[in-house]
Amino acid sequence: MTIKLPKIDFTISRRKLLILIGTALITMFLAIGIPTWTVGQSTTNLLVSAAASLQDVLNELKVLYQKEQRNVNVSFNFGASGPLQQQIEQGASVDIFISAAKKQVDDLEKKNLLLPESRVIIAKNRLVLITPKNSSGVNSFYSLQDESVKRIAIGEPRSVPAGQYAKQVLEQLKIWSNIKSKLVYVNNVRQVLAAVESGNADAGLVYVTDGKISQQVKVVVAADEKFHSPIIYPLAIIRGSKNIDAAKNFSKFLVSNPSRTVFKKYGFIVP
């Protein structure tokens, strides 16, 4: 007697086969510990326009941040706060602005260019008088009036916060008019530092953090804080940013305890 068995179809559609293979690969990745966020994760490019005096500290903080946020690429545009403000007003694709003074951020807020409630002060600073390391002729702000002092570098007061603070101090000490002819105006505070380092200026007014990073200058004296406006670094997210979530995340990182430690390392005062 012959028994007929039913036919079994062992064929499988290509679509089902691909699904099975894909599922198997994902299971394997999870089993061997490949982080799932790296699979198909796009990179966010974050542009931060920041005051020149923040260059060293922010570059170090960027490395720390990107170790934790590998899908975020942070780029910096360093310069004087005034020109950076103007770039934003003219439509530059900036995500975050960090100024060395309150005025520039206030101006952008008045023009409705900032994300509401995104402002935060991330650091403070001090203004100091510096000279070349081997110089001995200047021992106070009043020494700037001496005939031996020919050139004094400061930031352009109309656009550079460090220059604005410098002018306030020199006017409060009533020596501005006496030394005005000696003043050399530059585009940002790091150019003041470079002028003194090179010997192209006999003295200059910079932030204490700038004086701290250079081996070629010495700090003569710090300006009394009552003689100038508070030196603060306000941060704000630009309303037109296409990366709001990433900008908020980086902003929170900059006021975190690990970031505060780095700011202190470079001589900044943290709020």
From TrEMBL:
Record bears the keyword Signal: yes
Pfam families linked: SBP_bac_11
Coiled coil region boundaries: none
Gene this protein is translated from: modA
Annotated positions binding molybdate: S53, S81, A162, V189, Y207
Membrane-crossing segments per the record: 17-37
MF GO annotations: metal ion binding; molybdate ion binding; tungstate binding
Keyword Transmembrane helix among record annotations: yes
Domain of life: Bacteria
Similarity comment: Belongs to the bacterial solute-binding protein ModA family.
Record-linked SUPFAM superfamilies: Periplasmic binding protein-like II (SSF53850)
Protein name: Molybdate ABC transporter substrate-binding protein
Swiss-Prot/TrEMBL GO biological process terms: molybdate ion transport
Alphabetical keyword list: Membrane, Metal-binding, Molybdenum, Signal, Transmembrane, Transmembrane helix
Organism: Cylindrospermopsis curvispora GIHE-G1
